[in-house]
Design brief:
single chain; alpha/beta; Rossmann fold; 2 domains; two-stranded parallel ribbon; binds nicotinamide-adenine-dinucleotide
Length: about 325
């Protein structure tokens, strides 16, 4: 029997590369579409093929998807930075909205399901109830949140029009090995890098903002559990944790007692965020497996090995 093919946009990135490993381990043929703007070719193992294509280049994307003939497209490729979305909302919109529409159009030709990673954190806004259910009407406060919401709307419209079981996974604050410490998001990776360098970390929002942290292993399981289902799901732990608590867990793992510098929140950032994952538990049979304390310890260990290796061969970054 021919192998099923999964195409992963953003498969050279943090979450995409973990998903890629899982998809290969499940016996799928895997094709990655990535422009390597934040992802890295070294994250794509030899078993997968890497197509360096920009999602906004519709002709190149069509050629790649038509050649791969996937049965599922995991669509993770995105302009994923809130700060960049504020400074360049046009590019954010082009990649996240038009890029998603390009993926949906190509998926329709192949009857492929699209599983889209949206954001739980940036979508619901500051007035949302805690924990926030999927039924709360989004009120994003950044262009990134707006573009993800617009992309969701296109996905739902294409799902109804083409009778394909497209799925939206609204992710919480994802952390884990391979996350870059060089962006503005990814607080666990950023703080880990500071502690590894024995430099005082900066806590925005004076350490008070809360997030709903979920390990990349659990996100990968949720994306795989979404194959063959249609719906919109919050994918997170449903637990509110502030940045001071994250820093404490990391300091314990790193064996440091550095005093943080405190700074106000940056533009587009939320004060509180916590998602209700009940719908994913009911419909996908999915629950988090990785406990935050253990996940943070394991992540610090793996990230510090990665920082060590990168320091020895800086070109690898
Ligand atoms: N990390 C989180 O906490 C989090 C939370 C909610 C949602 N998400 C979503 O999950 C997905 C993956 O995020 P991540 O944290 O792994 O980020 P990432 O930056 O590591 O991954 C994004 C990938 O998309 C690629 N990409 C960007 N623009 C592209 C374009 N125009 N064409 C082709 N490829 C392009 C990048 O090179 C990168 O490999 C994104 O859609 C992001 O919005 C992430």
């Amino acid at each position: 029997m021919p192998k099923r093919t999964a195409l992963i946009t953003g498969g050279a990135g943090f979450i995409g590369s973990h998903l890629l490993e899982a998809v290969i381990a499940e016996g799928w043929e895997a094709v990655v579409v990535d422009d390597l703007s934040t992802g890295q070719a070294r994250h794509v193992p030899d078993e997968a093929s890497l197509e360096v294509v920009d999602l906004t280049d519709r002709d190149a994307l069509d050629r790649t998807i038509d050649a791969a003939r996937p049965s599922v497209i995991f669509h993770l490729g995105a302009q994923a930075s809130v700060t960049v979305s504020v400074s360049n909302p046009t590019r954010d919109c082009e990649v996240n909205v038009l890029g998603t529409m390009n993926v949906l159009e190509a998926a329709t030709r192949h009857g492929a399901q699209v599983i889209f990673t949206s954001t739980g954190g940036a979508l619901y806004g500051n007035a949302a109830p805690i924990p926030t259910p999927e039924g709360f009407i989004p009120a994003p406060i950044s262009p990134y949140g707006a573009s993800k919401w617009a992309a969701e709307a296109y996905l739902v419209t294409w799902r109804e029009a083409n009778r394909l079981p497209h799925t939206v996974c609204r992710l919480g604050n994802v952390y884990g090995p391979r996350q870059s410490p060089h962006g503005e998001a990814g607080v666990v990776a950023i703080l880990s890098h500071r502690l590894w360098r024995r430099e005082p970390p900066t806590l925005f929002g004076f350490g008070k903002p809360t997030r709903d942290y979920v390990h990349v292993h659990d996100v990968t399981r949720a994306l795989l559990a979404s194959v063959g289902t249609a719906g919109t799901f919050n994918i997170s732990a449903g637990v509110e944790t502030n940045v001071v608590q994250i820093l404490q867990a990391l300091q314990d793992a790193a064996g440091t007692t550095l005093t943080p510098e405190l700074a106000p929140l940056r533009s587009g950032e939320l004060e509180r965020s916590c998602l209700d994952p009940g719908h994913a538990a009911e419909q996908l049979g999915w629950r988090v497996e990785v406990n935050l304390q253990q996940g943070i310890e394991q992540t610090y260990r793996t990230l510090s090995e990665q920082f060590e290796a990168d320091a020895l061969s800086p070109d690898a970054r």
